[in-house]
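Fill in residues.
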């Protein structure tokens, strides 16, 4: 299954911020003029969806191992320790991606300003009327000769 089709806990927030469902946001992100913030947000969202899937897999495996109808002789402390370590790593990754995505969404420019190019003021050189313009000295711009 594509990560685009997996749900994540950030989907509602992304839809709220960008004003479109996640599937449409992925389509928009492939356009050449896609806002960089959208591309980064969806990249983090993809990583988050994978981390959340890992958390769910480990959780489900532990629940299955601990099911009341399961033979207690099949329990393995080593397997449970390994699952606990894997779960800790997956939760750390999930929390990191959620924090990074939250930070991005808080610090990015408002959606109405994202696609507008930045305008910079450039000085315009105005030509002086010939009556005010002084002739340039004969050696203007010439390099000075070095003295020995």
């Amino acid at each position: 299954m594509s990560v685009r089709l997996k749900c994540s806990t950030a989907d509602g927030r992304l839809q709220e911020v960008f004003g479109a469902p996640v599937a449409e946001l992925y389509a928009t992100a492939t356009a050449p003029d896609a806002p960089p913030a959208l591309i980064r947000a969806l990249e983090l969202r993809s990583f988050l969806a994978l981390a959340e899937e890992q958390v769910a897999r480990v959780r489900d495996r532990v629940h299955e191992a601990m099911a009341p109808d399961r033979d207690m002789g099949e329990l393995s402390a080593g397997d449970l320790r390994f699952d606990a370590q894997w779960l800790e790593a997956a939760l750390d990754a999930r929390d990191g991606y959620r924090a990074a995505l939250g930070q991005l969404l808080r610090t990015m420019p408002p959606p109405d300003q994202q696609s507008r190019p930045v305008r910079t003021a450039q000085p315009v050189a105005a030509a002086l009327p010939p009556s005010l313009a002084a002739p340039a000295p004969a050696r203007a711009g010439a390099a000075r000769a070095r003295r020995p």
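Residues 17 and 106 are 10 Å apart (CA to CA).
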